[in-house]
Design goal:
The complex is a heterodimer of chains A (117) and B (114). Chain A is an all-beta fold. Chain A has no helices and eleven strands. In chain A, the strands form two sheets. In chain A, strands 2, 4, 5, 6, 9, 10 and 11 form a seven-stranded mixed β-sheet that branches. In chain A, strands 1-3-8-7 form a four-stranded antiparallel β-sheet, with no helix packed on it. Chain A is globular and about 40 Å long. Chain B has 114 residues and is mainly β. The chains are: A mainly beta (117), B mainly beta (114). At the A-B interface, strand 5 and strand 10 of A face strand 4, strand 5, strand 9 and strand 10 of B.
């Protein structure tokens, strides 16, 4: 059963440190999404890529966050410098050709639980 | 701006009961409405996707309906089981600020008691 894989599952670090989260989308999926989930805000879209090109990153604080897809099997989300308010669960999701037209669902990983002290 | 609301935030029912979860959205110009399940410490699992041209979708004991004109969707769970306990999220897929986005509600936490 194909799954989206995220690493690490948990990360605790001190304020000011760089954090890198990784995502391996389902093989063959060409669209990758990054979300952040907090109790207060719920699930929010940060950015997404299609065929490794960024399509939208309007939900991402650009002064400290960056998202890339070095290749089709790896997406990364970096925070530098990290702040306590970045503490959240970060999810990656992927989808096939029909996901942007609304014909297919997104498939989610189990998330990275990030705590910034 | 699309806003998705789910009421109630939490629901507790005895095993075997049929139940309905509600979802409302403010912008009816959506491509689809999706229902997800989230278990504690896990990601989201897609349950049902209703295209904007459809009225309902069914999968096993789950039935989701969509009424775009009123901005509402419901998820019906028949003969609930303790294994159905989870948080259920609905999400509307549409265009926001020039690009496609999935906007989520905050979920309904369902507890099915044996």
């Amino acid at each position: 059963d194909a799954r989206v894989t995220q690493t690490p599952r948990h990360k605790v670090t001190e304020m000011g440190q760089e954090v890198t989260m990784r995502c391996q989308p389902i093989l063959g999926h060409n669209t990758v999404f990054w979300y952040r989930q907090t109790m207060m805000q719920g699930l929010e879209l940060l950015a997404y890529f299609r065929n490794r090109a960024p399509l939208d990153d309007s939900g991402m604080p650009k002064d400290r966050f960056s998202a890339e897809m070095p290749d089709a099997t790896l997406a990364t989300l970096k925070i530098q410098p990290s702040e306590p308010r970045d503490s959240a669960v970060y999810f990656c999701a992927s989808g096939g050709q029909g996901v942007l037209s609304g014909n297919q669902p997104q498939h989610f990983g189990d998330g990275t639980r990030l705590s910034i002290l | 701006k699309q806003e998705v609301t789910q009421i109630p935030a939490a629901l507790s029912v005895p095993e075997g009961e049929n139940l309905v979860l509600n979802c409302s959205f403010t912008d009816s110009a959506i491509y689809n409405l999706q229902w997800f399940r989230q278990d504690p410490g896990k990601g989201l699992t897609s349950l049902l996707l209703i295209q904007s041209s459809q009225r309902e979708q069914t999968s096993g004991r789950l039935n989701a309906s969509l009424d775009k004109s009123s901005g509402r969707s419901t998820l019906y769970i028949a003969a609930s089981q303790p294994g159905d306990s989870a948080t259920y999220l609905c999400a509307a897929w549409g265009t926001q600020g020039g690009s496609e986005k999935l906007v989520f509600g905050k979920g309904t936490k369902l507890t099915v008691n044996p």
